[in-house]
C-alpha cells in the first residue's frame, strides 16, 4: 500500500491542499490536488496543483516564477486535507501580488484589505 492510498479523496478525486510558509507559519493559499498532482509534488519537491477551472495540472510559479519548494507534507487526522510546508520563492503566493491569498479581514461586517501589494500583477504575468 502506498501513501497515496491513505488519502481520503473527495468524490471528484481531489483533496484540498494548504500551502504554509515553513519559516513564518503564514498560510499562503489553498488549492486542490488530484493523485497525479500529489505524486508530482513529492517527486519534484515543488508544489503541483490541479486547476479545477482549467481542468489541468499547474506547477506553482510556472508563469510568475514564484515557485513553492516543498519542505514537508502533512496529512490531517481524517485523511482529507494536506498541508504543504514550503519555501515560497520570491515572497509572493497570491496572483494579486501579495504574500498570501488571505489578505482580507472581517471588521465591522466588512472585508477590509490588510496586506499590501508587494508587486504589481502586471509586472508578474
The CATH topology name reads: Ubiquitin-like (UB roll)
Amino-to-carboxy terminus distance:
41 Å
Question: Can you tell me the CATH class?
Answer: Alpha Beta
Whole-number mean pLDDT:
96
Rg is: 15 Å
> In percent, how helical is the residue content?
under 10%
**Quick one: overall form?**
globular
Indicate how many domains the architecture comprises. Answer: 1
Number of strands: 8
Number of helices: 1
CATH homologous superfamily annotation: Phosphoribosyl-AMP cyclohydrolase
Largest sheet: 4 strands, mixed
Task: Please mark out the parts with pLDDT under 50 across 5 or more consecutive residues, or reply none.
Answer: none
What would CATH call the architecture?
Roll
Strand content: 35-45%
Lateral arrangement of strands in the main beta sheet: 2-1-6-5
Structure classification: mainly beta
Structural features:
globular, mainly beta, 4-stranded mixed sheet, 125 residues, two-stranded antiparallel sheet, Ubiquitin-like (UB roll)
Quick overview of this protein structure:
The chain is mainly beta.
Could you explain the architecture of this structure?
This protein has one helix at 35-44, and strands at 15-21, 27-33, 48-51, 56-59, 68-75, 82-88, 104-107, 110-113. The protein is mainly β and 125 residues long. The protein has one domain: Roll (Ubiquitin-like (UB roll)). A four-stranded mixed β-sheet has the order 2-1-6-5, with helices on one face. The longest helix is centred in the N-terminal third of the chain and has 10 residues, at 35-44. The termini are far apart.
Amino acid at each position: 500500500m502506498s501513501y497515496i492510498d491513505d488519502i481520503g479523496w473527495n468524490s471528484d478525486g481531489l483533496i484540498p491542499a494548504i500551502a504554509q510558509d515553513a519559516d513564518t507559519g503564514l498560510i499562503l493559499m489553498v488549492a486542490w490536488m488530484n493523485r497525479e498532482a500529489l505524486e508530482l509534488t513529492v517527486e519534484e519537491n515543488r508544489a503541483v496543483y490541479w486547476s479545477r477551472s482549467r481542468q489541468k495540472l499547474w506547477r506553482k510559479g510556472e508563469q510568475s516564477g514564484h515557485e513553492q519548494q516543498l519542505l514537508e507534507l502533512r496529512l490531517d487526522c481524517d485523511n482529507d486535507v494536506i498541508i504543504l510546508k514550503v519555501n515560497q520563492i520570491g515572497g509572493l503566493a497570491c496572483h494579486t501580488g501579495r504574500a498570501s491569498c488571505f489578505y482580507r479581514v472581517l471588521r465591522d461586517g466588512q472585508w477590509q484589505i490588510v496586506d499590501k501589494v508587494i508587486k504589481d500583477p502586471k509586472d508578474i504575468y
